[in-house]
Structures are given as structure tokens and as C-alpha cells.
Write a structure and sequence with these properties.
This protein is 72% helix and 0% strand. The chain is an all-alpha fold.
Length: 207
Amino acid sequence: MAVAATKEPNRLILFTDAVVAIAVTLLVLPLVDVVPEVAREHRPATEVITGHQPEIWTFLLSFAVIIRLWLSHHKAFQHVRAYSTPLVLCNSAWLLAIVVLPFPTEMVGVFDNSRFTTGLYIGTVFVATGLQAAMYLIIRIDPEVASEDTPLPGEFVLGAVTAAVLLLLALVVALTVPGVGYWALLLLLLSGPVEWAWRRRHAVAAA
């Protein structure tokens, strides 16, 4: 019998929110360091922006990625009435991926489109998304975890699994096709059509 499954999820949620907030804050630190660097070299203040656009765009992208993952996590945990050991382990691993993300983010700004940094960045996002899909599966199928009144909709699992598969494909493309780099992330735009096709196929099969 899983003792952890009898516990309220509030502490886990609050801890997760705090760690995500710290990770988001860490993203901006490399940009903060740019200011004294420009001042020491007596360059115009505008070069804080114009001379470091890759770092700025990478920051904005990573900020959007983390916030999107957190918002999805927040919505999913509204359907949790208790947490289990597998859910805690998946959540902890997911937090590790979120905390690690500022590291490849800074590397992207420094090393541009090298294959290693591209793979490290997309791979980190893939791991975070895959772990999120695993959490959603646990929340949906474990009766001791899922809310009895408002179970997790299947769309959550479908969306996370679709995103993880597309990110894995983006990782393979970025590592194997020269010159593609971060453009491979545009594959994520297919998530909407893929989910629609899956739901349509499932509806036809059930009819």
C-alpha cells in the first residue's frame, strides 16, 4: 500500500512553484552580466541590446518554454487529490530538467548554432516534456491520485505525448540534418493538427 498516496498535494505544488520561479529568475542572470561588460569596454548603452540579441531571444524562448510547462503542470494538478511515490519521483525529475534549462540556454547564446548546444537545449526540453507526459499518465490512470469529481481529461495526456514525440523528432532532425538547428523546433506547430487527427480517428473508431 502506497502511504504517500494518502497525502495532500498542496506541499508538492507549492514546492514545485517555488523551484520553477527560481529557474525562471536564473534565466535572466546572463543578461544582467552583460551590462557591466559593456560598461567596462566603454561601448554605447544600446549595445546591451543590439550586441546581444542571440542571448535575449534565447532568454525569451526559454522563459516561454518554462512558463508553458508550468501552466500545463498547474492545470493538471488541479485534478490531483493526493500524490503517490511515482508522481513525486516524476515531478522531481521534471523539476531537475526545468532547473537545468538555464544552463543550455546560456550556452546557446554563447556558442550559437553548434550541433552540441542545439542537441543539449532541445534534448533538455524534450526530457521535461516527456516527464510531464509521464506525470499526466500517472494522474489519469492511478485511482488513488486522480480526483474523483474532476478526473484529468485525456486531452492533457494527448497534448503532452504529442509534444514529446515532436520534440524527439526535432532533436533527431537538428542532430542529423546540417544547417537546420533550432528551426527544427517549428515541428511543434504540428501538435495541433496531430492532436486533431488523433481525436478524429479515435471518434471514428468508437462510432
